[in-house]
Design goal:
The chain is mainly β and 204 residues long. Helices cover 10% and strands 36% of the residues. This is SOS response-associated peptidase YedK. It comes from Sphingomonas yabuuchiae.
C-alpha cells in the first residue's frame, strides 16, 4: 500500500486511533504480523485504523492472515457483524512462482515474485474482518477461488477484491450479502508483472 490515509470509498481521511510513532511501523509493505492501515465503520462513521495482520493475535501456530470458510463458527461470528468487517487497501499483491529461477549469477536459484494489480483502481479494496484480541486489534483478509490470471501462480485461492459498487454492501450488508461477494475478481480487469527478484535486483 503506497501512501497515507486519504478519502477512499466514502471514508474520512482520519484515523480512529493514533498513527504509531515508532520506526517499526511501515505500512507500505503488508507482511504477516505487521501493522497496517484498514478502513472500517464505527458509530456511523467510516474512517481508517491501524491493526496487526493476524486476526487471532498470536493464538494460532501461525499468523491468521487469511480466512476462507465463512461457515466455520468463529469466522461466521465475524462475518455476521458489520462492525467487524473492514477493507484492506492495496496497490498490488504478490504470489511466488512455483519454480525456482537460476539467474546465472553464481548464487542459488530462487522463486520469483509475481505482482498483481487492478489498473482501473490504483488503490483497490480487499474484503476483510477484524476483532479485538489480547494483543490488540487484528485483521484478516477473506480469500476465494482464484481467477484465471492468479490460478497458474497460486491455484488454491486469491484475495477477495471488491468492486467499488460493492463496498457499502461489504461493510453494511447481511451475512448472505457477504457470502455472495466472496468470489474471484474479473481477471480481465487485472494485470500481472514478473517474475521479479528484488533481492537480486533483477526483473524478467
Amino acid at each position: 500500500m503506497s501512501g497515507e490515509p486519504e478519502t477512499l470509498w466514502g471514508s474520512a481521511a482520519k484515523l480512529f486511533g493514533q498513527r504509531p510513532r515508532d520506526n517499526r511501523f511501515n505500512p507500505r509493505e503488508l507482511r504477516p504480523k505487521s501493522r497496517n492501515y484498514i478502513i472500517r465503520e464505527q458509530d456511523g462513521e467510516r474512517a481508517w485504523d491501524v491493526m496487526t495482520w493476524d486476526v487471532l493475535g498470536g493464538k494460532a501456530p501461525w499468523p491468521m492472515t487469511n480466512v476462507r470458510n465463512l461457515a466455520l463458527p468463529q469466522w461466521r461470528k465475524l462475518a455476521e457483524k458489520p462492525e467487524n468487517r473492514c477493507l484492506v487497501p492495496l496497490t498490488e499483491f504478490c504470489e511466488f512462482t512455483h519454480e525456482k529461477h537460476d539467474l546465472g549469477d553464481g548464487k542459488p536459484a530462487l522463486k520469483g515474485e509475481m505482482w498483481f494489480a487492478v489498473p482501473s483502481q490504483p488503490v483497490f479494496a480487499v474484503a476483510g474482518f477484524w476483532q479485538t484480541t489480547a494483543e490488540g486489534n487484528g485483521f484478516t483478509m477473506v480469500t476465494c477461488d482464484p481467477n484465471a490470471l492468479v490460478s497458474p501462480i497460486h491455484p488454491k485461492a486469491m484475495i477477495t477484491i471488491l468492486d467499488p459498487d460493492d463496498i457499502d454492501t461489504w461493510l453494511q450488508g447481511s451475512y448472505d450479502d457477504v457470502v455472495r461477494l466472496q468470489k474471484p475478481f474479473d481477471p480481465a480487469k487485472m494485470t500481472v508483472r514478473g517474475p521479479v527478484f528484488p533481492t537480486r535486483r533483477d526483473e524478467r
